Amino acid sequence: MSFTTAAKDKILLIGDSLSAGYGLEQAQAWVHLLQNKYDQKNNDIIIINTAISGQTTDNALLKIDAWLNTHQPSHVLIELGGNDGIRGFPVKLLYKHLTELVTKSQEQGAKVALMEIQIPPNLGPRYSKLFTESYHKVTQETGAYLMPYFMMQIAIDSSLMQNDNLHPNAKAQPVIRDFMYGEINKWLHH
């Protein structure tokens, strides 16, 4: 199989419902909107979205080798941990799984960004703090890039959230697209 033009950057996105476009048409979801923006600007960037609603770090670990082998990405963006947090998984496990996801990707030669997921404080301030700190720890130890969480400004604005107060609505998707356009750009030129 030969391609006439090889994409410069192939980003494998490993995420959960926030990147899978939960409750939305695929065409409305931020990943789709961002790919359209890259295409319009003739950016040689392809996003391979493997996000699955409900995905946890241990689910992703079972699949990452196949994804890396199939897609051979130049970059891997990990947007995971929210479901681990909601289910109250031990922070030590989150840290271990994130470290494995990052190192497996790096061993394949990909540059890795880890999105700093933040969880609602109702899970307890100590747990929330340790949870967030684990992202910093993983990036410091692996040299992965720490990317800010795209939900920080969205989650506090009820007009951008679905009725479950967990998932961004269609109106939020262009906001996330623009945020991620800027953040991915910073990461790629980092």
Concise account of the structure shown:
The protein has eight helices and five strands. It has 190 residues and is α/β, with parallel strands linked by helices.
Shape: globular
How much of the sequence lies in strands comes to: 5-15%
Instruction: For the largest sheet, list the strands in their spatial order.
Output: 2-1-3-4-5
- Following the backbone from N to C, one meets helices and strands in this order, namely EHHEHEHHEHEHH
Question: How many helical elements?
Answer: 8
Mean pLDDT: 94
Q: What multimeric state do the chains show?
A: single chain
Got a strand count? 5
Class per helix and strand makeup = alpha/beta
Rg value:
16 Å
Runs with pLDDT <50, length 5+? 1-5
Characterization of the model:
The chain has 190 residues and is an alpha/beta fold. It has eight helices and five strands. The protein has a five-stranded parallel β-sheet with strand order 2-1-3-4-5, with helices on both faces. Helix 6 (125-142) links the parallel strand 4 and strand 5. Helix 3 (57-71) runs parallel beside helix 5. The longest helix is centred in the C-terminal third of the chain and has 18 residues, at 125-142. The chain starts with 8 loop residues before the first strand and ends with a helix.
Structural topology:
Layout: E1 9-15, H1 17-20, H2 30-40, E2 45-49, H3 57-71, E3 75-79, H4 82-86, H5 91-107, E4 111-115, H6 125-142, E5 145-147, H7 152-155, H8 173-188
Parallel strand pairs: 1-2, 1-3, 3-4, 4-5
Task: Give descriptors for this structure.
alpha/beta; 47% helix; disordered N terminus
